[in-house]
Fold this sequence. Notes:
By secondary structure, the chain is α/β, with parallel strands linked by helices. Helix content is 41%, strand content 19%.
Amino acid sequence: MNTRSPKPFASVAWTAARCALACTALAAAGVAQAQATWKPTKPVTIIVPWAAGGATDQVTRLAAAEIEAGLGQKIVVVNQPGGAGSIGTKATMDAPKDGYTWTAGAAKQLGTYPVLGMIPSKLDDFHLFLAVTNVSIVSVNPGTPYQTMPQLLEAMKANPLPVATAGNSSSGHFAMEAIAKATGAKYRHVTYDGGNPAVVSTVAGETQLTTQLAPEQSEMLKGKRLRALAVVADTGLTIEGVGTIPPITQFVPNFPKVTTGFGIFIPKGVPAEVVSTVEKLWAEKVVTSDKLKKYAADRGALFTPLFGKAAYDAVWPTVVTDAYLLQDAGLAKVSPESLGIKR
């Protein structure tokens, strides 16, 4: 079981800088450590446990394309949404440990699924390969009267508003729950099978606002079909064609950090050469990927490629924070402490 104590969150900007430095060392380490080369004899399947078009789907397809040639086999991305990502993740856990079935998503959810009583996963059950860090944006339908974050918060304190997210334990849910806890805002949680359908619901007026991730909202923001009020981070976020979105800390001091590391995860128990080969390819292809760098810049993500211990150390504090957000909100089915997650 995980027994690490939570570490203080760094700022988004500092985290990006730290990751960039760490990746330089990891690139050399990964190449040196790869003793055996895995040569898959059939396509590799990555189960994306969310609907097509969302943040997980977007970055997974880009990262998979970067390492596919090096593997010498096709990587097939299969969307299997449901259960806030737990169904597809469980399918990967139950698959043969032969190295041919991987999953993807927000790494911290691997540690919070059991808190919600969904599946018995742990962060320690997977080899983590991170590509980007995403932040949530509080955005409203342009037809609503809310022009600023203070206006929205004032309205939500008086009456709960419908908020669209990708479901319980999704990044959007954690962002909204953190806002509610910090401000006393009330909301009605409207869940979907992925970030993209959640964003579309707000664009269509089914819901008044969404707190989903920047890559899922960026195109709608550029098209003026959503109005961004705040980024759920401690620094502003600039998206080309949108401008700079102010940080929520400008309106809510001492707001907790709820950033999310996204990537591909390989279950432990697979042959060692599978892991060493993917580590080598991640260091050579993903860490230096111009396509992923451009994606991050265009979609409002941070390019933070990590793997191995560095990835685990970056994700673990977010597991702790989110687990206790769930408990404090009365949503935990299992005590985080009983799972080895110490506050």
